[in-house]
Amino acid sequence: MGHKSTSRSTASTKTSKGQSLTIANLQNSLRELRGKPDQLYLLLALIFLTLALLWSYWNTLVWVAVFWNDPLYSHGWLVPIFTLALLWIRREPFAKPTLTASLCGLALLAVGLGLRMVATHYSFVTIDAFSLIPSLAGVFLLVGGWSLIRWAGPAILFLVFMFPLPTILKENILGWLQLKASAASTYLLQTLGIMAYHEGNRISIGDLQLGVVDACAGLRMATIFFALAVAIVLVVDRPWWDRLVILLSAIPIALAVNVVRVTRSEERRVGKECRSRWS
Description:
This protein is mainly alpha-helical. It is built from ten helices and three strands; from the N terminus they run ααααααααβββαα. The protein has helices at residues 2-35, 37-56, 58-67, 78-90, 99-121, 125-130, 132-158, 167-191, 219-235, 240-278, and strands at 197-199, 202-205, 208-211. The chain has a three-stranded antiparallel sheet, with helices on one face. Helix 5 packs across helix 7 (132-158) and helix 9 (219-235) packs antiparallel against helix 10 (240-278). It is elongated, with a radius of gyration of 25 Å.
């Protein structure tokens, strides 16, 4: 009992210390801003323009949020939260933008909003959603110049993971993944001694027909693994080759894990079918 109470008190002490450090860091940052009016003005301008831009995209963001109820895009809720955390982790002091940088930011903002207008006119809702990225980058470049883009740009680009894929691209990827998952799962089943063959996305074992549906294609797992890999690469302080390996291995690992999952699921169905026939 004494050891348990001691460990609990130690854990609570660590938690309280972590919270105290976070609050202290926030207070120090606010104190520094008050001592540097130019930094405060740039921050307020950035917050105001960003909120105004998000308000103008509000109907599109509501449309995007509907997709987050789909299991394929259920990670979308976490993307804006991680983006804010990434901005806080990578933050650096503001630098006064040059005239060239401000003009480039204004041009990038105009391109993003122009793309939004064209997409809205032709009802290309997905393009409308993706136009938020250049528009937001334009606001950051306009206010803080290239120095702000260098540390905030990766967080802005990470917002791509909260948008749904275009329907045509999604269907093509799903179809390809279904075929590959069917072929790989059939090979594993044959390796396990089960006489199986596949035709398209259907696996035949005797007179038992098994289909690899959209949910088993592995697109959701690949998307989440890749988003997680990008998040890790943006946070960890490792050599570039380590981060490259993390990025390149994310999707193959996700697809391999999905194939094992599908194979195990089909093996269980075969075993269940055999037991029901013998009973």
